[in-house]
Amino acid sequence: MSEGSSFPGGSGPLGDLLRDLARLLTAQGPLNWEVARQLAIWTATQGAAEPNPDPLARMRTEELLRVADMYVAEATGMPTSRRGWLALRCTTRAEWASTTLAAWKDLLTRLASSLSPGVGPAGAPDGNPMDQLLGNLPQVIGPLLLGAQAGSMVGHLAQRAIGQYDLPMPAPASDELMAVPTAVDSFAAEWGLAPDDVRMYVCLRDVAFHAVLSRPHVAAVLQEHLSAYASAFQVPMDAIEQRLSGLDPTDLMSFQQSLGDPEALLGDIQTDEQRRLLVPARAFLTALSGYTDFILDKVGQRLVGAYPLVSEAFRRRRLEDGPGQRVLGKLLGIEVDQAMVDKGHSFVAGVLERAGEEGLARLWEAASTLPTPAEVDAPGLWLARLELTD
């Protein structure tokens, strides 16, 4: 082997390539963010170039967002944003994936730390990258594996993403709601719906979610659940070893096959502590689902021309989760299934029957007014507790 092509210390093209690869694989921390970012973008687009969002679609969606903002504020009696106005950001699928991955960085880092508590920095930053790679292989594989899983999961989400709140995740700090115009138009064409009807529905849905989830005490409750649930994860080492046994370092395709499936490693793993934490979390998500659906029905019937058809199409879409949504639901405890949707509707109907919309408006007053699991099943108990508190 010639000096220029030798490694790890060679100065030729092969040596440079291997050093770049080593730097990529020896990223610091429990999750390799460069691998996550690249795989998220590639999975979102399947490697194909995307056109920029259509300016006309962006302007039309901005107009509809302003209308949705006004009507949802009136229906909820709550501010729909922290600063008094909402902004729209039209994105491609790749941009949605990159932005979402960055927004969830703290949460995914906490999750990765829980899944690999013994993994620390892969090596001193001023050392030889190849020495770090070869000498710390266990510390390298863990962050690489978790980075690939996180990137694949977010990338699969981006393939289906239409707006900001396809999933009930924390509100963005900027009061800027994302929309994917190409996905909106594709969904409208697939179901034979008017694009403006779909745009208005997405705007109403996302503004309703944002009005609730941007309230500080509600955001704190959701964030506490996500963090506690992610921190309680435990993955048996034999499951990791079994998954890694299929890796062939000389074959990049084996990495994609072993790490590219968001359900490949984590599957149905759930601890007893997570099952305990899931009980109040499901109560919160049930109330959230029922309330936002009520607001959406109330306002949407006035603003969306073919509201019954659009609503049914989105109902089916919500219950046909892709692999990214299924894994995220398992990882963070935010699965919203049909049983929760039905229970949420029953809870809201029970409150309206007993106390009207004035009683329902108290749902988001404070953390103490959020319903307990027992109260979600019996809305009369929730109203009685509020009266006793008063």
Walk me through this protein's architecture:
- Mean pLDDT is 82; it is low at 1-10, 119-126 and 129-138.
- This protein is 66% helix and 2% strand.
- The protein is built from 18 helices and two strands.
- Strands 1-2 form a two-stranded parallel ribbon.
- By secondary structure, the chain is mainly α.
- The protein has helices spanning 13-25, 33-45, 55-76, 93-103, 105-115, 129-135, 137-160, 181-191, 195-213, 216-231, 237-244, 252-259, 272-303, 307-319, 323-332, 338-360, 373-377, 379-389; strands at residues 87-90, 176-179.
Average pLDDT, rounded to a whole number, is 82
Strand content: under 5%
Helical residue percent band: 55-70%
Number of helices: 18
Largest sheet: 2 strands, parallel
| Largest sheet strand order | 1-2
The helix/strand order is HHHEHHHHEHHHHHHHHHHH
Identify low-pLDDT runs: 1-10, 119-126, 129-138
Termini Cα gap? 83 Å
Structural class: mainly alpha
Radius of gyration: 23 Å
Dominant shape:
globular
Total beta strands: 2
